[in-house]
## 1
Amino acid sequence: MTRLELTLATAPVGALDLSPLTPHALAGMTADQIRRLRLRHGTRSTPLGDLFAVNGTAGDVLALRGLTSGCLRAGAGLESGTVEVTGNPGDELGRDMRGGSIQVRGNVGDGVGLGMQGGLIRVNGSAGDRIGGMLPGATRGMNEGTIIITGDAGERVGERMRRGLIVVCGDTGGYTGDRMLAGTIIVLGACGPHAGAGMRRGSLLLSERPATMPATFNPCGAFALTFVPLLAQHLAGIDRRLARRIGDFARAERWCGDMAYGGKGEILLAAAAAGAR
Amino acid sequence: MKINGVSIDDTFAEAFPMKATRLVVTAYNETWAEHAARAMTGFATSVIACGCEAGIERPLKPNETPDGRPGLAVLLFTMSNKELGKQIQNRVGQCVLTSPTSACFAGLDDGDPMPLGKNLRYFGDGHQIAKKLGDKRYWRVPVMDGEFVCEEMTRVVKAIGGGNFLILARDQAAALAAAERAIAAMQTVPGVIMPFPGGVVRSGSKVGSKYKTLPASTNHLFCPTLRGAVKSELSDDVGAVLEIVIDGLDTASIDEATRVGIRAACRGRNHGVLRISAGNYGGNLGPYHFKLRDILK
């Protein structure tokens, strides 16, 4: 497996757009050609070689090292291969991604997986607002794929999400699953206020009971739903340890809602959370 | 050719192309998975009048099923895609959907797509929920004990039906004991089912009848009670004949099932088995010929 490493040598002044850097876009290019690639940097464009040290050969794996919050759209439009990110990249990581995987070690800005249409994003750290949300001007959020955040996430996780799976191992901010159309969001930490507001369909699995359950969700009782082990088996193919934590939902309290929007969505509270009234 | 003193006829089983799918039926425990699978594969011995041939392929451990619960792999065979679609709808809808705690999944990854839960979801009357996990789509249909989870599509592959062999024995008890040994051994072979009751058929048939409306009738040449009346295939010492019919996903599976089945039937002392033969139609109807002596070499 060939691997190309781009190490940020000079911190960008203003926003640096990394969307041209994906394994398939760089495939077949020599190190010199890659150094001459021009990246949008603030209001100008700058040769990649002025900002990054280039090592290795372009192929299946692209490593972006030492990214800072000014580095936007890392792995955007990824179709195949792997993008490994270290550092604390900025907004819109994995924007409009179609396939492949992005692995991040560090904290990420807002808009992880905006408009995502496939693939896997795993952030070993925390992320900002609007994970799996909508691209500017779009009416739907992520349409496919999986996003795993091992730390905390900001507000509006899965905003207008249409399909796919988001797992946040830590806490989330307010409006988790805001106006969600379908798909699945799992929060293994605490969830902020107004979870599932405006939710049409989809599933919101919460390990901890929110301080107040939304008024437009109705309780249905506690059940051992067949869907839960199926979800756990699916997750086991991605992360076995994470899959075991889904066992908390083996028996879950089901709330249907948002009743103001048809009531076909659901919040599943893990048995332990459901008991902690 | 002889195995443990049993004569193996120099003949072949004649088999036909069919369409097949594998479904995985799971439930809260093995007992309820089996209830669902047995109901679903009931009245499915022959396509002549049952619409399909179906049976339980093997039990599955929780780590082999999509939802991590105990289950069974079931195979269904028909003569056409259209009929298979109908049988899946009816059998899963009436026997698996209705069975407590059950769920139903596709058991093949390759082949032509065929609706499984795609239409059954409407039982949810608008309350059904779709879930796409990876590249598979599932339906969650609310039912009175919780929810029925069903994969949207299954896969249909080309398969083979009608592999067979005949156990010619001294008497009924010997034939039955040999058939039971054979079935027990054949149930360990993946990719095959023996669709008749207990895997064994006593009413072997031939094509056609003296009665115009009957497409099949008794295989009179192998009926011991007619030995004096027709040009029988049976010697005087044969008191009973039992047939084992095999449907399989490919020729290799049927070969293997035939091999282990015949060897098991001929096993032991004083087994009472005199001959092993096979049913065919002269080789002109079915494109698949399973030659007993080649398989047992």
## 2
Amino acid sequence: MSETCKVSAERRGDVAILWTDGYINNQGGEEIAREAYAQLDQGVRALVLNLEKTRIVNSIGISILIEVLEKVMDRKGVLAFCGLTPTIDKTFRIMGLAQYAEIFPTQDEALRKVSAQSA
Amino acid sequence: MTMPVSPAGLEELWKRIGSILETDAPLPSRIAEAAVAATGARDAALYVRDRDAWVRAGEGLGLDADGHAVPEPLPEGIFVRDGDLWLPLAVEGEIHGLLRLLGVEAAPESSNALAFVLGAVLGAHRLARQVRDAEFELKARLLELESLYDLGLSLGGQLDLSALADEVLFRSISLTDAGKGTLALVEPSGALVLERSVGDDVFSARDVKTWSLPEGGVINNEAASTPTAGLPLATCEKCLVVSIAVPGRRLGVLAVADKESRDGRVLDFTATDARLLSLFANQAAAAIETARLHRDAIEKERMERELELAAAIQRQILPRDLPEVPGLEIAAKNVPTRQVGGDYFDLFPLSRGRLGFVVADVSGKGIPAALLVSTVHAAVHLQIDEAPTIADLVGRIDRHLQRYAATRKFLTCFFGVIEPDTGTMRYVSAGHNPALLRRADGRIEQLGATGVPLGMFPKAQWKEQEVTLGRGELLCVYTDGVTEALDARDEEFGLGRLADLLAAPARPSELCAKVFAAVDAFAEGVPQYDDQTLLLVSRKG
């Protein structure tokens, strides 16, 4: 079996924080998408993805994250990333995710910025 | 397939469906809704090609998917089948989709225009997706290049093998879209250094030693049924395996397995994947070798520091000045090798004008030998005034070594006590090289061992012998570093050469210098690996 990615979420006001733990591949990406769409369906418009427990992302995972990002943008929402390893940070910047979703070093910074944007 | 469509007809149609097509709804829904609005159909569904089959795209407008298969073979152009109208949505003759309009039994006048417009929309969408996919692919290739560059930089300064292995494994899995991977590093002996896996192990690290992977690695896209290169694979469907190696030596194995796709299928690994993984493995090999060399250099530096310290301790132990003993003339010299050896000599002025002395050679070199020398030195100084006889003194030191010496080492030694007035010398030789006695007439006598080396056998005993040193006669005690000094042809200096040098009458200090000069000349600059110690005592005439 591949390394299983676990995703947990918590609502903080208008913002939902999603924590990933493991490899963001097809399975991990789908888990993130499922949780993100559930949050969007509950009216959340701002998502923070904390990836501090993720060390690997593949292109399938990235394409799913792009789909999630597009859906968030379709709903006039905002998505931010935090806790990225330097390798994943660079990957997101090259693959274009950082064009539409800001990357923050810490969750607190991401929450502050995203809360202000979604207010 | 080109359809005759008038501009007026198109304009008219666009007025009716343009606003629907411009919404944010998913494309299949927009197309179906526009088709319903344009034709008054009860419902509509869009079918698109997925590999070899037509599949329903999107959710449609409540259409039940069952029993709505696309007719095979597909009739050409617009057609009606079972009370439904089918519109091929094509651009430049390529059909991008099939639109099914329920309850439309005859093609309305606007059918061609509708097929043209919706075909163009679907074609544009496909083109946009292709552009996006191509852009994604391009970025993925750029990421590969950047990763290679970054890995080179990162590994260049990475001396921690564990971090290095993680870096290589994570990037390998990530960039080949593998579901899992394993990296194992081994010693030249085959012993496992470390193993890392993401997901289940692709292989068992204990098998690494016996693998015979061909250069460039192995792509095994039928791993489950056809193990390759004697590769006992664990749980995977398809795998890609490369060696981590420097010329002539395998450092480890890197494997990734089960390449993922968006639809959950396990894809074949490609030649590009293999090339990428080989590049990663090459970078890893260079970095691992660098880390190893660095580790070795640090270890060597540490050893050298320790040896310097040990040498300093040993220098402190050896006597700085030789005692002045009336009636005797003494010369001694110790030449240590670069590595700390285990030679030791000492002289002890005793009561009634006697002189005690010892020359010892500890087995081994380096720190353990230096520690043993230090132990012997302490034991001798503690016991020299307590022991009633030399044999007893040697026995006490032996028992001390058996009890307290940290390592299983032994030493040979020659202990003697000379009474200058009478020339009587009592001695014990514990497995030591024969001491040489130059008699007044120039003859050389050998004083052989009177017992086994110290620290070797429990409860060993030593005989004490007595010999008389006549006036002008000379005693020479040495270590094997002198007689076993090697020249470039690996020939030893030998006892004979030493004896010949001693035969000619001379003062001990002159003889001492002469012996060392002769040994030096004999060795012709060949580095020696054993300490050289020489003690000469003559009884004044």
